[in-house]
Amino acid sequence: xxxxxxxxxKMPMIPTYRVLSRVQIMAETVDYNHRLMNVPSxxxxxxxxxxxxxxxxxxxxxxxxxxxxxxxSFIPNYPNDKNGHSTxxxxxxxxxxxxxxxxxxIAPDCEDWYGAVLDGSGSxxxxxxxxxxxxxxxxxxxxxxxxxxxxxxxxxxxxxxxDACNYARSKGVLVVCAAGNEASNVxxxxxxxxxLAIAAVDDEQEHARFSNTGKEVDFAAGGxxxxxxxxxxxxxxxxxxxxxxxxxxxxAALIIADEKKDHDKWLTPDETIAKLKKIAxxxxxNGYDEMYGFGIPVFANSDEPVxxxxxxxxxxxxxxxxxSPCKIGLPMVKAFLxxxxxxxxxxxxTGLPEQQRVADAVGSGIRAAAKFAGRIxxxxxxxxx
Length: 385
Hints:
three-stranded antiparallel β-sheet
C-alpha cells in the first residue's frame, strides 16, 4: 500500500514546455507523423470510426478543429483545458479531417473522450489519475487510453496506480503512455508491464535528445516540433514524448477500427500490440533496443488491411562489391559530422544548456556512425567499428 499522502497530493505530471510557434486558423494540413508512419495508406480503409479513445490530461479541449464525444473532470470546477497540453494531444489523435482548415488528426473519425486529471498547471494527484482510468474503462468503455503524463523514475512503485493500469488492460483496454522527457530512465506509469511506453523521434527518425530510454520502451513516434491544435482556436508546435504517445495512440486506433470493420471484432491489447510489432520499422540497432523499442509502426503501401500486410522488410541487400577501407570509413565519418551539425542546429524546444547540446550532438554523431556501420554489416560489406 502506498503512502496516503503520495496518492492524494498534487504533483507535476507533465514537463515544462515552451511553444515553438503558434498560428491561428489556416488551410488544412497534416503533421509529419502522417508521412513518418504512412497514415494516408491506412486512410483507404479506415479513419478510426467507432473506436473510443480516452485522453487523460489537462481537461476537455474547446477548439473549432476538435469535436469531443464527452468528458469528465476529476478536479473540482475544472472541466476544460486551460493549459493547452490536452488540446495539443487531442489534436494529434482526433483533429477533424477534410474541413478545409487547421490540422487533421491521425484517427480523425475516432470517438475522443477527455478526463481532466491534471489542472491548468499540469499538476494532479495519483488518486485522480486512478479514478480517470476506472472511468475510461468502466463508464466510457474505451478501447485505448492515452496518458501523456507521468512521474520521473526514482519514486517508489505506486501499487494502486499499477493496479489501475492492470485492471484496464484486463478489461481489453490498450493503455499508452509517454516514456518521459528527462533523458533518463522511464518512470511511472509508462514503466508498467501493462502499459505501452512511447519514445520520441524527430521528423528524420533520429532519437530525440530528451526522450527517456530503457527496457520499458515499446515503440517510438514523432515527438519533436509536432504541429497540432492549441488554446484559443490556435495551432502550435510542441516537443516531448507527450506528443509521440498520442501519435502511437492514433495508429493503434486505426488498427483496431480496421479489424472491427473487416472481421467485426475488437482486438485485445495483446492482439493490437502484435499488429504494431508486425508493421514496426526497425530504426535502431538490429531488433529491439532501449531507445526505439520495436521501432516506428509504418503502414505498408497496400490496398490490403493491416491483417493482410506483410511484416516490414529489412533493408534491401544490393549486389555485393569489394569495399575499400576508405569507401567504408569516409561515409561513416560524414554520417557522424552531418548528424552532429544537424543536432547542434536544431531547436527542439527543450532549452538545454550549450554544454549539453554539444554532448548530445556528439552522441547523435556516434549513433549515426554506428547505424551506418551496422548497415554495412547487415549488407555483408564490412564489419562494424
